[in-house]
Amino acid sequence: MTQTPPPTTPRLRLKVTPAAQQHLRAGHPWLYESSVKSQNRPGTAGELGIVLDRQDRFLAIGLYDPTSPLRLRALHVGPPVTIDEAWWASHLDTALALRDGLFDETTDGYRLINGESDRWPGLVLDRYAQTLVLKLYTAAWFPHLQMVLNLLQERFPDYAVTLRLSRNIQDAARALDLHDGQVVQGHMDGDIVIFSESGLKFEADVVKGQKTGFFLDQRENRRRVEALSQGRRVLNAFSFTGGFSLYAARGGATSVVSLDLSQHALAGAKHNFALNPQLGKVGHQTVQDDVFEWLQQDQGTFGLIVLDPPSLARRESERAAAISAYGTLAEDALKMLGRGGILVAASCSAHVSEREFYAAVRGAVQRSGRGSVELETSAHAPDHHATFAEAEYLKAIFIQVF
After folding, report:
1. Which of 17, 80, 120, 401 is the most core-located residue (most Cβ within 10 A)?
2. 353 pLDDT exceeds 60?
3. What pLDDT digit, counting tens, does each position of 22-64 carry?
4. Beta-carbon count within 10 A of 1 CB
5. Where in the chain is the domain with CATH 3.40.50.150?
6. pLDDT at 6
7. 95's torsion region: left (phi>0), alpha (psi -120 to 50) or beta?
8. What's the rounded mean pLDDT across residues 357-365?
9. Could you say which architecture CATH assigns to the domain 215-401?
10. Does domain 12-77 have CATH number 2.160.10.10?
């Protein structure tokens, strides 16, 4: 059930800075600790707190977290509303409706709730076939967990639900007998779920894997790579479990190299190719090595290279080094691209802007002295839409060189 204060306890009310009021009205979902000027009493994790404007009028309502620098995550901004079970049900259905028509029967792996951008702040819900993965980033959701599970049970009655937790809330979860990877609804046979994406089969480790088990956000970019791979030798650097590799193989690549430092990830890539025997005619090689070092060696010529590293800037202090690293990766990859070859470079670092990332890659092309055509740039997939600046992490650029 949704947590509400006892009748004798006054509703938690926060007064905030003028700048914070402006940001909330503009659609920003976060209220920082430093923006709270006063509150009528201490609050508890998950309590619904009201933000008042300078005239003491209702401005917003959200989930309060006394242990987080993000002191309140907005659920609703505007005229007053009653947050009850009917409101939560409608709120969920709104998010689900945004995905209607995005996918056909060839794809049963995608995002159903994208956190703040769907006004479910600090909560992500992904589907993998008949399994839902619910990931929480704030302890403010713990008091509401059963309510969320009840809503999911009503809409997905035959699905299992796995709970994933960010590291910063796992200690608080243990006190409630919750843990990362816990199956909180339904039944699962093992940690691995097989799902379909664009007609290809993939494994997702929904219990222990990165993110919620797979990088669903790169789906559209994988489709773009498939369309560009015909007749090309393809390198998938930072390959993880081979998502781009399988699409390139189906797109007609002559051969594919999956390059990653993790032997476990490369084993996953082999498993995914085995799930798709129709790709057996395309030579697939896995290479375990540090990508930065491997690219500096003579590895022959490729017709298409994908650079999709993990986040190189997890905090603002790492931004400058990350921008430099993106440029270095592009420079080294360009040396391996034959005439007419295509570089696909992606970034998932929220602290590096689109402008900064594209400038780093374009600068590397300019320094190479080669002619080039910029084919396209891309951002978030429609099921991963972003509605405020901090949510805009994913960007990719496609450049052909001569």
Report:
1. 120
2. yes
3. 999 999 999 999 999 999 999 999 999 999 999 999 999 999 9
4. 10
5. 215-401
6. 56
7. alpha
8. 98
9. 3-Layer(aba) Sandwich (3.40)
10. no
Structure pTM? 0.95
As assigned by CATH, the class of the 85-194 domain is alpha beta
Q: Where in the chain is the domain with CATH 2.30.130.10?
A: 12-77
Residue 80 one-letter amino acid: P
Q: Could you read off the pLDDT of 96-145 as tens digits, one per residue?
A: 999 999 999 999 999 999 999 999 999 999 999 999 999 999 999 999 99
Distance (Å, rounded) from C-alpha 129 to C-alpha 90? Answer: 24
The answer to whether the CB of 310 falls within 8 A of the CB of 240 is no
235-289: pLDDT as tens digits: 999 999 999 999 999 999 999 999 999 999 999 999 999 999 999 999 999 999 9
The single residue listed with the structure tokens 């009310």 is 13
Average of per-residue pLDDT values in the chain: 96
Q: Which residues contact 284 (CB under 8 A, 6 or more apart)?
A: 242, 245, 249, 255, 256, 257, 258, 269, 270, 273
Determine the Cα–Cα distance for residues 211 and 196; give it in Å rounded to an integer: 18
Amino acid at 149: L
